[in-house]
């Protein structure tokens, strides 16, 4: 919001809320944090928080506005959609970012609100809302990636607790997490029906975490090993055997956050490829990108991006206009991945050797970032349901094509 | 599907019902066999005219409905699904030129006749086999237009021509100085070489208007292509569910499932691009030229893919004249070529963006 809207409190209750939000932000947001990204919600690990950062996080946590839509009873803001939009506008206006984020907010919290017992909600939701506890996701295993229901980590019934043994992998932020929501097997006789949803304390004896170094040089993921880890039975969410249902519900929250408004808008950030190309390659006597093949591939990519942007807009309009969920949403993940990867490949090609620097002298910061972005981008078509899994979903659910008999 | 208002939803459903009941692909097959000189079924055109469709982009003051380009696109999409052979696209494109550039007298005389369906109008722009608006040599002197126009759609029946000369657009009505030679094309639709030899012509506007009108013609062509691509895809999807080989429906083979999923993905992008161009025209957006080039490039590539795959996935039956697949691929290539193919529009998009 570039300009301050006129406030007419009497005429519109939303304006009254806007006034309240604006005043509260002015009173609580430390000016030193203006226009700074929140480091807390990233997967890059904990950083030493400044006193101002701690103050802002505490204020937002106490107010419940880190999770504005969650119920007040569990530490949320209890705001409706219109109020949340106003709050976001006012935060943006002040240059403030939400200091409370991560997997607890995006995926686990909403799922626990739906499936958790009252005691579980009291214990966990409040801490998530305050940003005090970091959660990680214990889903994938070495032999359960795209075939997630093949999880083998076993939780053996030992009376008032389970004994958990097994290995998880691709645990995002596992090395910094306090707790883990995990899919474990409680019954080996059936595949989907033998899975349960269990909450595991990452500091419990028998939990071991090893960061995985990726091709991009970063280590945002871990392997997590469970060796005779004792987990109290009150940490079971839902019933034994209900884990697949709960776990896939959580994945819907994950996909929404991966392909929805927030992630997608980042695709269109940055320089147009044509501008980047002229910076690195110059222009021919007619002012064109001199490599005609590259020039046309840039055009194809830009067209693909624009058609995707139009599709995001169309899907949002269709959803609003009561036509039910748009079929277009089923293609978002794959097209978003394709555009992200094409953009990175084109960028490094345009930059030549300068786009392949690893570290140190002789490269700009943007160039070094580009190398890592390009490599990290290869994950986009793998995580959150690979491109192939998405194609299965489209062909079966949208096109009605059946499994082999 | 764009977010439609009630009027647009009713229009779409009405035309879809008409096309399915009165103009299925079998109607086009019969038309091809009968081969009427005008290249379309006059009874079908009367039916569309009674629904008010030729006046969709014509103001109400001149007998139209002024529903706009997205609405026209919805109609052409429904007609395109069944390959309904009508002069609607050509007539509407020519009408847009008169709406944008015509004198009050020209509007009053021609728009009501076009809106009622009494008169077939068309654009006569290109002079060679490849769309090239920069290469127009037709010229006007003393109010008389001379030049030869190639592959004019509905050129066999049109009595109102909107003609591009090197300095802009002109309106030619009547037969004086106009001769037509039919060009029998693979899509069995009406195309003709039209020669103007000192034909009386009224000026509509400069080459800017020519470009504006071509953009409109291109966008509505894309809408017909969208309907064709959707139907070609769904016909293929249905076939894969009925054809059994190795004791399995073809649709159970993952290699085919993923090909279909990818085509579906491209179709969704195509719909967004095409509807985006039509909406840009309705909104009078200043970058509608880019939106149109995006739409035509994406539409051409996608219809090309889907029409090829329609034959491949049907196998031998798709190669036979008895099957509809041939109709779709033949019309597809004509529309891909018309108003510039994908490569033309990628180059134009590059220039518009300064790449």
Keywords:
heterodimer; A: 405 residues; alpha+beta; Butyryl-Coa Dehydrogenase, subunit A, domain 1; Butyryl-CoA Dehydrogenase, subunit A, domain 2; Butyryl-CoA Dehydrogenase, subunit A, domain 3; 3 domains; 13% strand; disordered N terminus; B: 355 residues; four-stranded mixed β-sheet; 15% strand; oxidoreductase (chain A); AcylCo_DH/oxidase_C (chain A); FAD (chain A); Acyl-CoA dehydrogenase (chain A); AcylCoA_DH/ox_N_sf (chain A)
Structure overview:
The complex is a heterodimer of chains A (405) and B (355). Chain A is built from twelve helices and eight strands. Chain A is α+β, with helices and mostly antiparallel strands and 405 residues long. Chain A has three domains: 13-101, Butyryl-Coa Dehydrogenase, subunit A, domain 1 (Orthogonal Bundle), CATH 1.10.540; 135-241, Butyryl-CoA Dehydrogenase, subunit A, domain 2 (Beta Barrel), CATH 2.40.110; 260-398, Butyryl-CoA Dehydrogenase, subunit A, domain 3. Chain A has a four-stranded mixed beta sheet with strand order 1-4-5-8. In chain A, strands 2-3-7-6 form a four-stranded antiparallel beta sheet, with no helix packed on it. In chain A, strand 2 and strand 3 form a beta hairpin. The longest helix of chain A has 29 residues, at 292-320. The radius of gyration of chain A is 23 Å and the shape is globular. Residues 1-7, 39-44 and 260-265 of chain A have low confidence and may be disordered. Chain B has a four-stranded mixed beta sheet, covered by helices on one side. A four-stranded antiparallel beta sheet of chain B has the order 2-3-7-6, with no helix packed on it. In chain B, strand 2 (139-141) and strand 3 form a beta hairpin. Chain B has 355 residues and is α+β, with helices and mostly antiparallel strands. The model of chain B has no long low-confidence stretch (mean pLDDT 97). Chain B is built from twelve helices and ten strands. Chain B folds into three domains: 6-115, Acyl-CoA dehydrogenase/oxidase, N-terminal domain (Butyryl-Coa Dehydrogenase, subunit A, domain 1, Orthogonal Bundle); 121-206, Butyryl-CoA Dehydrogenase, subunit A, domain 2; 209-352, Up-down Bundle (Butyryl-CoA Dehydrogenase, subunit A, domain 3), CATH 1.20.140. Classes of the chains: A alpha+beta (405), B alpha+beta (355). The interface between A and B is large, with 46 and 39 residues. Chain B: InterPro entries: Acyl-CoA_Oxase/DH_mid-dom_sf (IPR046373), AcylCo_DH-like_C (IPR036250), AcylCo_DH/oxidase_C (IPR009075), AcylCoA_DH/ox_N (IPR013786), AcylCoA_DH/ox_N_sf (IPR037069), AcylCoA_DH/oxidase_NM_dom_sf (IPR009100). Chain B: It comes from Sphingomonas psychrolutea.
